[in-house]
Amino acid sequence: MKSNLLISHRWKTPGWVLTIPALLTGLYLLFVVQDTEYLCVEVPAWADTFLWIDRFFQKDGPFSLCLLDEIVALALLIGLLLLAFSREKLEDEYIQRVRLESLQWAILINAVLLMLFTLFTYGSPFLTVMTFNMFTPLLIFVGRFYYILRLKPLFSTTN
Amino acid sequence: MKNTIRVDRAILNISQAELADRVQVTRQTINAIELGKYVPSAALAMKIARVFGKKVEEVFELEEGD
């Protein structure tokens, strides 16, 4: 079966290498240190022409940007995309079906969680919900896909 | 759909992995078909039947409700 959106199997390893450290770092920043003011750089004043940014405190002059959270978020998104879109060694029809089902699960669970959190979360905690929501569709997809193909066969006896 | 793949494999004395290899799918696919969790495409069903030297209807059978 042709599936043109998929990339080579070789991207699996880079995918894991990006995803796992980025996920752990992200959770650590969000819940343990509760701060993302790291890797801050001074940016010249003209740069705000190209950025969508609030400058509450310093209306003029150079300003500071903290890049660790950007790096972690991009690493996590790229890593998850590599895992989600890389071909299995032998991409057969059953794997295609697991792929489709996992995508459906991911969209459904994500929407249900979002509805629940919309009802039960108010004020600034909702920002945390939104932060998670940036990654949950891909996270649920990757989790379900690899669970069905790699982990579940270990529990069921075969042959 | 019911199928007799497990029995036919035993007759030929080949493992899931060997059958998977002969019809160019993964072992998980053969396992899912044997457990009745996945109904293969017509093309794959015919390839599997050919390995056992049988007709498709002899390996795969419709069930009530199919």
How is the topology of this model organized?
The complex is a heterodimer of chains A (159) and B (66).
Chain A: H1 12-33, E1 40-43, E2 63-66, H2 68-85, H3 93-120, H4 125-133, H5 136-155
Antiparallel strand pairs in A: 1-2
Helix pairs in contact in A: 1-2, 2-5, 3-5
Chain B: E1 2-3, H1 5-12, H2 16-22, H3 27-34, H4 42-51, H5 56-59, E2 60-61
Description:
The complex is a heterodimer of chains A (159) and B (66). The relative contact order of chain A is 0.14. Helices cover 61% and strands 5% of the residues of chain A. Chain A has a two-stranded antiparallel ribbon. Chain A is globular and about 60 Å long. Chain A is mainly alpha-helical and 159 residues long. In chain A, α1 packs antiparallel against α2, α2 packs across α5 and α3 crosses α5. The longest helix of chain A has 28 residues. Chain A has five helices and two strands, in the order αββαααα. Chain B is mainly alpha-helical and 66 residues long. Chain B has a single domain, classed as lambda repressor-like DNA-binding domains (434 Repressor (Amino-terminal Domain), Orthogonal Bundle). Helix content of chain B is 56%, strand content 6%. Chain B contains five helices and two strands, in the order βαααααβ. In chain B, strands 1-2 form a two-stranded antiparallel ribbon. In chain B, α2 crosses α3. At the A-B interface, α3 of A face α3 of B.
Q: Give the strand tally of chain A.
A: 2
What would you report as the Rg of chain B, rounded to the nearest angstrom? 11 Å
Order of helices and strands of chain A: HEEHHHH
Q: What is the number of helices of chain B?
A: 5
Output the helix-strand order of chain B.
EHHHHHE
Mean pLDDT of chain A: 89
The number of helical elements of chain A comes to: 5
Would you count the extended β strands of chain B for me? 2
Largest sheet of chain B, in brief, is:
2 strands, antiparallel
Rg of chain A (C-alpha, Å)? 20 Å
This entry's quaternary arrangement is heterodimer
Beta-sheet strand percentage of chain B?
5-15%
Counting structural domains of chain A, the number is 2
The CATH H-level superfamily of chain B is lambda repressor-like DNA-binding domains
Percent range of helical residues of chain B: 55-70%
Q: Which geometry of chain B do the CA atoms define? A: globular
The tally of domains of chain B stands at 1
Low-confidence stretches of chain A at least 5 residues in length (pLDDT < 50)? none
For the largest interface in this structure, which chains are involved and how many residues does each contribute?
A-B, 13 and 16 residues
